[in-house]
């Protein structure tokens, strides 16, 4: 069987490099050059950029990979330079999984913020100040934390799960499963009864994911309707920027959905159907490692002031030529 997992390290390192370059560049531009984005939303943009760097960097430690075998699914660490820290690596894999929920919940919050900025700008003040910052950072932290804890509790391996995967795991990866940081999900016991602890992750995790997408879809639909009614009250530059933020949020949500959620569904739900498979499914992690730089690239390409600023820097134009003639803060 091809050792696809050996290539994952290269994708991880590439993801860290590109995420650091693109995201720190975005932070620099937002802090020192972009004038049309200010207030709370400016901090949201920078926090999301820093989260992308942290997400990619943490992958170097966690080195997550997945494998599907019949009615079992294992999420484990390929880290070989911290072999004596099994519990820490298991914890690292759980934190890595929680990062995705953090990012998705953060997007849901941004949809709420942008919707309020259209229909009731005064309410966006709830996101300001120390208390507001604690709230809009705390919500995705809680969502990500719950997801990580749920993973650690429901996926904690037992003798039955280890024995079921032991031979296959050793054959494919040349590793002793009992000494590998891992989470194993086998929804059926030997007598075909349900293993409810494992199933609780699928149900609880599914509820958390669905909740964020519900917020995103609800706010997205309402924003689309509100933009037709409310944008007439904004100046032309502000109107254009509002539309660009809306498009950016839609695309930024679609990217991780296509890179991770859609490919992950057969991986997570496959064990329920007890198909006879023996597949290295960790390639999804390689795709996800490229998400942070893609996310930043999409945002920069859609929001025109970033494009103008970058063009001005590379073309060595005068500083005033890359600034808008009308300054407003969103």
Topology:
Layout: H1 8-32, H2 39-62, E1 64-69, E2 72-77, H3 86-119, H4 129-154, H5 159-173, E3 182-185, H6 196-230, H7 236-273, E4 278-280, H8 283-289, H9 291-302, H10 304-315
Antiparallel strand pairs: 1-2, 1-4, 2-3
Organism: Caenorhabditis brenneri
Protein name: Seven TM Receptor
Keywords: Membrane, Transmembrane, Transmembrane helix
What keyword list fits this structure?
four-stranded antiparallel sheet, disordered C terminus, 10 helices, membrane, 330 residues, 4 strands, Seven TM Receptor, 69% helix
Can you characterise this structure?
The protein has 330 residues and is mainly α. It has one domain: Rhodopsin 7-helix transmembrane proteins (Rhopdopsin 7-helix transmembrane proteins). 69% of the residues lie in helices and 6% in strands. The chain is built from 10 helices and 4 strands. α3 packs parallel to α6. The chain is elongated. The C terminus is likely disordered. This is Seven TM Receptor.
Spatial extent as radius of gyration: 22 Å
Order of helices and strands: HHEEHHHEHHEHHH
Name the CATH homologous superfamily.
Answer: Rhodopsin 7-helix transmembrane proteins
- Lateral arrangement of strands in the main beta sheet: 3-2-1-4
Principal-axes shape call: elongated
**Major beta sheet, specifics?**
4 strands, antiparallel
Question: What is the CATH architecture term?
Answer: Up-down Bundle
| Poorly predicted runs | 320-329
Portion of residues in beta strands equals 5-15%
**Helix content bin:** 55-70%
Under CATH, the topology can be stated as Rhopdopsin 7-helix transmembrane proteins
Q: Count the strands?
A: 4
């Amino acid at each position: 069987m091809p050792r696809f997992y050996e290539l994952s390290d290269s994708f991880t390192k590439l993801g860290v490099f590109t995420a650091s370059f693109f995201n720190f560049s975005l932070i620099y531009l937002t802090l020192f050059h972009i004038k049309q984005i200010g207030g709370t939303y400016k901090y949201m943009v920078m926090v999301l950029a820093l989260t992308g760097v942290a997400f990619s960097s943490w992958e170097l430690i966690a080195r997550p990979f997945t494998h599907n075998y019949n009615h079992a699914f294992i999420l484990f660490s390929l880290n070989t330079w911290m072999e004596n820290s099994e519990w820490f690596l298991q914890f690292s894999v759980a934190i890595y999984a929680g990062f995705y929920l953090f990012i998705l919940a953060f997007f849901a919050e941004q949809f709420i913020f942008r919707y309020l900025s259209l229909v009731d700008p005064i309410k966006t003040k709830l996101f300001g100040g120390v208390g507001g910052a604690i709230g809009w950072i705390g919500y995705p932290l809680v969502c990500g934390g719950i997801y990580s804890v749920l993973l650690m509790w429901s996926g904690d391996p037992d003798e039955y799960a280890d024995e079921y995967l032991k031979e296959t795991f050793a054959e494919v990866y040349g590793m002793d499963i009992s000494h590998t940081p891992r989470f194993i999900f086998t929804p059926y016991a030997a007598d075909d009864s349900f293993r409810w602890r494992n199933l609780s992750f699928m149900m609880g995790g599914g509820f958390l994911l669905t909740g964020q997408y519900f917020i995103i879809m609800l706010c997205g639909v309402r924003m689309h309707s509100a933009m037709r009614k409310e944008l007439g009250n904004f100046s032309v530059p502000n109107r254009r920027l509002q539309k660009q933020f809306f498009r950016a949020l839609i695309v930024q949500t679609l990217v991780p959905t296509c890179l991770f959620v859609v490919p992950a569904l057969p991986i997570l739900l496959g064990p329920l159907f007890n198909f006879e498979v023996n597949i290295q499914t960790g390639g999804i992690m390689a795709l996800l490692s490229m998400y942070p730089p893609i996310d930043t690239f999409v945002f920069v390409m859609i929001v025109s002031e970033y494009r103008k600023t970058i063009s001005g820097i590379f073309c060595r134009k005068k500083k005033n030529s890359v600034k808008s003639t009308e300054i407003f803060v969103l």
